[in-house]
Amino acid sequence: MSDPKNKRDDQSLRETAVRQLEEGLHAVPPPSETREALQHELSVHQIELELQNEELRHTVLELRQLHEKYLGLYDFAPVGYFTLDQSGTIRQANLRAGRLLGVERSRLLGRRLLQFTAPESNTTLAALLPRLLVSEDGLVTELRLQRADGSVFPVRLEGQAYSSGESLIAVTDITTEKAAQDELLRLNENLERRVVERTARIRELSDELRTVMLAVAEDLMDSLHRVASFVEVLRHDVSTVPVTPAQRFAPVFRSVERMEELARALLEYSRASSTRVRLVSLDLNRVFSEVEKDLQPSMEGRNVKLTRDPLPTVTADIAMMQQMFLNLLENALKFTADREVARIHVGADETETEFILRFEDNGVGFNNRHRDKLFQVFKRLHPESAFPGVGIGLAIVRRACTRFGGRVWAEGRVGEGATFFVAWPKHPTVLE
């Protein structure tokens, strides 16, 4: 059955041909005989064919231009395109596809896409292709391709099957996207790790504060109990041995002095825990020199060899770092008091993330089995009668160091001296 539209187009062409023929034969009268009528008909038909050819040329030109635009879009698309037959063989590929794989486009044709898939993704692609041929909506997956130089990169693969049995595969390089995802995961893991570490530090400090409060309460209660007991004795005056007022009140004075020492120690510990700090670039050689001046009264009359290696510049709070140096060096001076020559040395090492400071002495040392008690509040490894003090100095060092994300520990041998270590982070974070 003929198409009415074609009839209208043919009629239009014929009318146009007749009109052009008449316009070109102004002096010729209308044909009246059969021969002239036939000639007229042939002329009209010839002009009609020329018009059809002209339209056909325009159509071919438009199709060529559209084809060129299609090729341009196809070749220079930001994703790689592969046309595969039912066996997965590459029949067509755009320029981007060749660049992704590091192979000239002409060398891709006739080869299977599986040849350019990373070994760990072969199974994924082999299972995808048969499913693609029977899918109406297409399929999307992620896998890894392998370039000609052996390098592997992640891609997102989107496929659509044609009715001819072939399929179009669009491949997008997602290296940057995957890198961003990995970086986000790394940041999340790092954040989670920091939260865990910070929570652990807070819990540790909370436990330590509880221990401090209990220790202070016990010591204060003991001193107050002594005062109360002695006052009770005075009140009843039950003493049978005559004593001087100085002798009678000496225990009271000692108990009061003990309470004052504990209060001062508690105040120092509190300052180390709560004082506002300001991180600056700090030359530890200058810190050593300033602390050495403060220690001069303690070294008078003694033969003390206080030395140091070149010390690093760190990021720290000035007052807090000076307090740590002072406490560690005072501790070394205290426990070398019975040495003919006291040797105290400060050294430093460096790792990728920390500076390791060493405070070495040739003092009485300690048993390594009890070294964990060294940095606990009011814990002592030696009798107070031999080495006076309330046992707060090293606890302050530990508290200050922990507050900045650092670490402290010690090693020693009885009678052979001790070494105290401070691991100070290169990028400290302050725990308020």
Automatic annotation (TrEMBL):
Family annotation (InterPro entries): BphY/WalK/GraS-like (IPR050351), HATPase_C_sf (IPR036890), HATPase_dom (IPR003594), His_kinase_dom (IPR005467), PAS (IPR000014), PAS-like_dom_sf (IPR035965), Sig_transdc_His_kin-like_C (IPR004358)
Q: Which GO terms describe its cellular component?
A: membrane
Q: What is its EC number?
A: 2.7.13.3
Look up the record and give one Gene Ontology term from the biological process aspect.
Answer: osmosensory signaling via phosphorelay pathway
| Coiled-coil intervals, chain numbering | 35-69, 174-208
Where does the Histidine kinase domain start and stop, copy by copy?
A: 215-428
**Pfam families, alphabetized:** HATPase_c, PAS_9
Quote the PROSITE patterns the UniProt record gives.
HIS_KIN, PAS
Q: Which residues form the PAS domain?
A: 66-136
Gene3D superfamilies named in the record: Histidine kinase-like ATPase, C-terminal domain, PAS domain
| SUPFAM superfamilies found in the cross-reference section | ATPase domain of HSP90 chaperone/DNA topoisomerase II/histidine kinase, PYP-like sensor domain (PAS domain)
Work out whether the entry's keyword set contains Coiled coil: yes
User: What keywords tag this UniProt record?
Assistant: Coiled coil, Kinase, Membrane, Phosphoprotein, Transferase
The answer to whether UniProt assigns keyword Transferase to this entry is yes
Q: What does it catalyze?
A: ATP + protein L-histidine = ADP + protein N-phospho-L-histidine
UniProt cross-references to PANTHER family, sorted A to Z:
BACTERIOPHYTOCHROME, TWO-COMPONENT HISTIDINE KINASE
Q: What is this protein called?
A: histidine kinase
